[in-house]
């Protein structure tokens, strides 16, 4: 029985025995603790090292060889928006791959006045047709009023002639009556002859009054016809203005290029409902471009508007350098970087200076070399902890592994894409230029080779 119990004990216990001495329990406990400690040690997670790139701090270049990286930007960049609303009916078709037509899109060049897109015109065309119909009616009324004026003016000469005839007859009757009255007063004329002369005078006066009334009536008809013509002319002018006003929205259904340009973006498709003011395309001028770069205060003092600067681009062929005048100098420094933006305008007749391209601008002689090391601008960070000033991370070897150490620095002038370090970095030290914003002081890193 004891043997069975001993066998069962050995099978049910990891130590193979149901009974253990105190010393044996102590040894096994120590072994288990060591094993558990070993398990915890193997389960510890090691964080990957932060990859960084470093460069050796070199002597600042001579100031008379200043080169600045500049970005090619358009002189004019325009958002083309619809003035009226409606559904997009068509987009300019241009040859695509294999010659198949496709919609105009980014990178395509367009000439001034080209229709880039057009909205549905049916509703606007109805308004134009109605305005044209009203204009035709007004013009017909003007023609009729002009005809009435001509008729009224044609009747006046006859009335004037009638007045002249009756006036002549009246004058004769007046003279005859005066003579008859004198004869009658001297009893040299009978009463019957006197009465006949008086009747002739009264008849002549009546005829003259009637003729004068005819002339006045003709003048009134002319004035009325002229007023009607003036009203008809005003109506025609109003109708023309209404037509012109309706033709403007019709013309505005077409979105046209205001200049020779390249398309930067297209924001519409056929069938898009465009609200007034919605941007359909963004275009930029390419015939003339500008190289934009920034310089420190000690350099900007030597620059002036109109000064020609050489600009070098990595282009195929011999024409890699061009010269252009300075057309803009910022009146104030950027509040963050403390540098001044400068623009150089360059001709671009072939369009080979593409927007966003990086070029090099040579500023020229500015003085003696700076006797300090210079590092890339990307190496400069804030010192952290709410402190003011600037710092860089310098790689130090510790047990054969690179460690990033934060160094407070005193900065000097900006030289192109590099900045002079007056204090805090020695020549030959390796400075982190990529990944510095991710580091903490004393952090192990993985140094990556330069690209």
Report on the structure:
The protein is built from five helices and 24 strands. The chain folds into five domains: 2-42; 50-61 and 371-448, conserved putative lor/sdh protein from methanococcus maripaludis s2 fold; 63-74 and 284-364, Efflux pump adaptor protein, beta barrel domain (Elongation Factor Tu (Ef-tu), domain 3); 81-118 and 254-283, Beta Barrel (OB fold (Dihydrolipoamide Acetyltransferase, E2P)), CATH 2.40.50; 123-252, Helix Hairpins (Orthogonal Bundle). The strands form five sheets. Strands 1, 2, 19, 20, 21, 22, 23 and 24 form an eight-stranded mixed β-sheet that branches. The chain has a six-stranded antiparallel barrel with strand order 3-14-17-16-15-18. It is α+β, with helices and mostly antiparallel strands and 451 residues long. The longest helix is centred in the middle third of the chain and has 64 residues, at 122-185.
